[in-house]
Amino acid sequence: MTTTSLTKSRGAGRAGDKVFSAATLAAGCLILAVLFGVALFLAIQAFPALVAPADKIQGGEGFFTYIWPLVIGTLIASVIALVIATPIAIGVALFISHYAPRKLASGLGYVVDLLAAIPSVIYGAWGVAFLAKEISPAYDWLAENMGWLPIFQGPASATGKTILTAGIVLAVMVLPIITSLTREIFLQTPKLHEEAALALGATRWEMVRMTVLPFGRPGIISAVMLGLGRALGETMAVALVLSSGALTASLIQSGNQTIAAEIALNFPEASGLKVSTLIAAGLVLFVITLGVNMIARGIIARHKEFSGAN
Amino acid sequence: MTSTLTPVRKRSALTKGQLPKAAPYIVLAVALVLGAAILALIGFNAFGWGIVSAILFAAGLVGWSLVVEGSRKAKDKLATCLVVGSFLVALLPLFSVIWTVLVNGIPGLLDPGFLSTSMNGVTGAFDNKTVEEGAPLVGGIYHAFMGTLLITVLATIISVPVGLLTAIYLVEYGEDRPLARAITFFVDVMTGIPSIVAGLFAAAAFFAVVGPGTKTGAVAAVALSVLMIPVVVRSSEEMLKIVPNELREAAYALGVRKWRTILKVVLPTAISGIASGITLAIARVIGETAPILVTAGFATTINTNVFSGWMASLPTFIYTQILNPTSPSNPDPSSVRAWGAALVLIILVMLLNLGARLIARIFSPKTGR
After folding, report:
1. Mean pLDDT of the B186-212 span
2. Mean pLDDT within B226-243
3. What is the mean pLDDT of residues A229-245?
4. Interchain pair A91, B185: CB under 8 A
5. Nearest residue on chain A to B165, judged by CA atoms?
6. DSSP state string for B195-240
7. pTM of the entire structure?
8. Subunit contact B197:A122, Cβ cutoff 8 A
């Protein structure tokens, strides 16, 4: 720049180098500190609820009796979401990577990504105002014809605000996540494998089954795990859609509750030990999602080393 | 000779046992007609017609293919039908959501004063009047809009330097050290933190440091930063990685220091991608509800001070208006306001997404090719 003295410029530059690299290092360490802080502060604030006498906790039977149905409810909603979303997501990913005309593919991928851009509270509002109403006749039908299954035991909720509706809304929300990850993996399938299969006379589906799916299996598993992580922690859709209650086996009655929705519904008005209880519930959710995400990321990382795709 | 060639070509061994090219269209037409006929018997609606026709189409095409072409080709057709079908199914909720928000949101948005007034002093009595006597709808989203704007701006101010510097560390200084690998791994893990846990973390941290019950816009901004930083790091890292190494080497060869190389060569080259990544990160956190709900509470008045007092935001406004209508006996005005706010929010998010694409396109480096 305008500096004329060589020594001065060098000195300034050296200091700049040090300051800059220290700043980047500090930012990186800050991220680790934040993640550590999340665990630490949650644990500190949750501690009173964990050691409080059982009759002080909501429900009067201690923290674990309180959290247990919530964990099960969270798992039920997430499993419904994954059961619906996974096959559709794999289909969409295959459509974009191997079936759609090449020119359209990226545009179609963008359309699916738009699904991820819509805020969760709007999904919740849509679920309660549109989906729950439209789907309740289907629940009546299920209760009448499939009622012998415990999960479809009647009488069906008249409002349609059930855990199955919440699961369907969650499925819509995790669909773009699973789709975009599996799409990336499918696109990395070695071209030579695909061409070899086609050259041997395989139909397109046989080619997909013999080359794309085996190659993409670890990717699909980790994408589903990441979708699970998102579904476990999703709050608003469940808080708005589900009319909560005690743990029930039937998916088409009102009842059940998830950890995240329980926190969102009660935290704004909570005080004292109730705050600690809810933060402890958040800690449980954090530990569960952290575990799920770490397993998923571990699979992705291992897959990267072996595939040589990059 | 020619007269005998034509029939021979039609029954050539190469095309024997194949469906004619027009087969999908024929089956589609038959399926649509049959579907309409079936639906006419049990009561017509467009959605059911689409579903029934799609099932008939798939069954017809696969069945025909099974008879003419054999099981392998039929399986292929079935797979194609399922793959295309799953894509169409995935589009349904997208259009349904956008349609629902548009139809329900436009009346609220067209309401005079909707964008310029707050909910200060608006009680259930006003809403009852609106429903019973046809008085104009009062109350608006100005306070929520300002809250969203301020909280998001503050979150961006916190997240962008931290995220960008971390990305620079990972790409330029990390060199696959254990620390860099740990950061990469935990940033990935952080992207999976449930938004409500991020909110609880910010709340718990401020409860512990400032005092119990601290709920302000700044706490919400910290919560959103926890969600935003990993997104910024990931996208910036990807963008910095694709800056060609020749550019760095050329700068070093001219005797430029590393930090100046990064600031003057690497960052300008990658800036379009980084900016579009940041815009997408903003779009992601602007619609977050749960963390704001537990950190900033919900206010009905205009509060432009992020460091004191509860603050409203568009997502929490939608949530509270739906779940706890201003007038419990007449929830319709609240629902109109909620959908109006939802429309504003979705427009904001879509504009940010569009903006990200435009930024990426306009500011991308000129490669000269």
Report:
1. 85
2. 91
3. 84
4. no
5. A24
6. HHHHHHHHHHHHHHHT-TT---HHHHHHHHHHHHHHHHHHHHHHHH
7. 0.86
8. no
> What would the two tokens of residue A166 be?
């919440």
Q: Cα A25 to chain center, whole Å?
A: 30
Which residue type, as a one-letter code, is found at position B237?
A: E
Confirm if B221 and B154 have CB atoms less than 8 A apart. Answer: yes
| pLDDT tens readout for residues B134-167 | 777 777 888 889 999 999 999 999 999 999 999 9
Q: Are A198 and A68 in contact (CB under 8 A)?
A: no
Residues of B in contact with A204 (CB under 8 A): 76, 79-80
What is the Cβ-side half-sphere exposure of residue A94, based on CA atoms within 13 angstroms? 26
Tens of pLDDT along A275-300? 888 889 988 998 898 888 888 877 77
Which chain B residues contact residue A89 at CB under 8 A?
86, 90
Q: Are B287 and A121 in contact (CB < 8 Å)?
A: yes
Taking CB atoms and an 8 Å cutoff, what residues of chain B touch A279?
A: 200, 203-204
Interface of A with B in 112-171 (CB under 8 A): 112, 114-115, 117-126, 128-131
Query: Could you report the predicted ipTM of this complex, rounded to two decimals?
Result: 0.84
* Segments of chain B assigned E as strands: none
SS3 B151: helix
pLDDT of residue B17: 74
Q: Which chain B residue's Cα is nearest to A278?
A: B200
Among B86, B233, B288, whose Cβ lies nearest the Cβ of A92?
A: B86
Look up residue A95 and give its DSSP letter. I
- Which residues are CB-neighbours of B194 under 8 A, at least 6 positions away? A229, A232, A233, A234, A235, A260, A285, A286, A289, B290
Residues 53-72 of A with CB under 8 A from B: none
A49-83 pLDDT, tens digit per residue, is 888 777 777 766 778 888 888 899 899 999 999 99
A-B contacts at Cβ under 8 angstroms: 277
- What string of DSSP letters covers A100-123? S-HHHHHHHHHHHHHHHHS-HHHH
Q: Do B196 and A94 touch (CB under 8 A)?
A: no
Nearest Cα of chain A lies from the Cα of B133 at a distance, in angstroms, of 25
